[in-house]
Amino acid sequence: MAPSRGDGIADGKPDLSYPSKLVQTLDAHSGPVNVIKYNHGAKYLLSGSTDRTIRLWNPALGKEIKCYNGHAQEVLALDITHDNAKFASSGGDRAVFLWDVPTGSVIRRMQGHFGKINAVAFSPDSQILASAGFDAKVMLWDMRASSRDPLQTLKEATSTVSSLLLPSSPQIIAGSYDGFLRTYDLRFGLLTDDLIGEPINSLRPSTVNPEESILVSTNPHAHSSDLDSSGNGNYNGNSNAQNKIRIFDRKDGSCLQTFRGHQVIPNKWGMIWGYGESHVLAGDKDGALWSWNVLDGKPLSDHPKAIHKKQITSIEMNPRGKEMITASLDGTIKVWHK
Predict the structure, then answer these.
(1) Where does the record place its WD repeats (predicted)?
(2) Range of the domain at 110
């Protein structure tokens, strides 16, 4: 099976371009920006920072709409309900916060994890919220009930769980520093585990064929001690770590393509499918944006230019491919148009 490609094709050749015209710089955060997330419809953007705030933006206009205060530690993860009325956040607090978007109030705090919570994700119907983190557990929370306890706890991982996807209602995909990509089918009580072999940083489902392929980023030196306590992303480990991004076939676990060449600070680096999945984008430790051709796995440039002053932590691509947003340890969010 060849790597999936969507409609990023022009005149028989794949369109490898991406939005590169800077139209807005959003700099209201006073610390590193760890995560950004489009709302459903991709008109608005949420951002979470080491400054402990979450901000809602109209990125095209460069306007901050609302600031959400409540976290006592860094914000590391965000997800939004399908109706855009609520969102979940997590980070260093060891609790998951459920927020009301218009009022800015915290509706619910879910506690049970022992350590940083790296990932939160809603099911497509927003009835289940999953959370995961340093304690190697995935916890499932029933959004229709007000119970203090999780609906279910998945304990198969043996190290930090870094990333979560809930692509369809009974299904959960979790990536861990133990090197396994685990897919749970809760309806039938099935677990499929694929050994990736290196600590998994992040996951991105195919936007064209989500049941067929998945983008997986790994770093052999990913570990919580690799970042200094300042939260500024100063890496104390091996700067020559071989970071990889790979496309895996979800049906048989085979690797379809591998992308390498960039160097990153472990734990906090962004990657994403390009529009039409003809290319893959990722940031490096110097703030440069790398792009690789999906067909041959080669970078479009061996020395891409820096677009941020520090590592790019999170990237969002508008579903129509006309807008891209990048966030960085330098504390800024940048909006790019074609």
Answers:
(1) 26-58, 68-109, 110-151, 305-338
(2) 9-224+236-337
Q: Domain for residue 229, yes or no?
A: no
3-state secondary structure of 321: coil
| Residue pointed to by tokens 């932590």 | 313
Place of tokens 């690789």: 292
Pairing relation of β-strands 289-293 and 279-283?
antiparallel
* % of the chain beyond a pLDDT of 70: 90
Q: Which residues contact 226 (CB under 8 A, 6 or more apart)?
A: 235, 236, 237, 265, 266, 267
User: Measured on CA atoms in the order 270, 98, 181, 178, is the torsion positive or negative?
Assistant: positive
Question: Has residue 133 been placed in a domain?
Answer: yes
Predicted TM-score (pTM) of the model is 0.91
Quote the number of domains for the chain.
Answer: 1
Q: Give the residues across from 205 on adjacent strands.
A: 214
Asked whether residue 276 is assigned to any structural domain, the reply reads yes
For the sheet with 200-205, list strands across it: 200-205, 213-218, 244-249, 255-260
pLDDT grade, residue 163 (50/70/90)?
very high
Radius of gyration of the chain (CA): 18
Choose among 320, 317, 319: nearest CA to 335. Answer: 317
Q: Give the pLDDT confidence of 275-333 residue by residue, as tens digits.
A: 999 999 999 999 999 999 999 999 999 999 999 999 999 999 999 999 999 999 999 99
What does the alpha-carbon distance between residue 333 and residue 29 come to, in Å, rounded to a whole number?
9
Number of CB atoms found within 10 A of residue 110's CB = 22
CATH number at residue 132: 2.130.10.10
**Residues 218/175, Cβ–Cβ less than 8 Å:** no
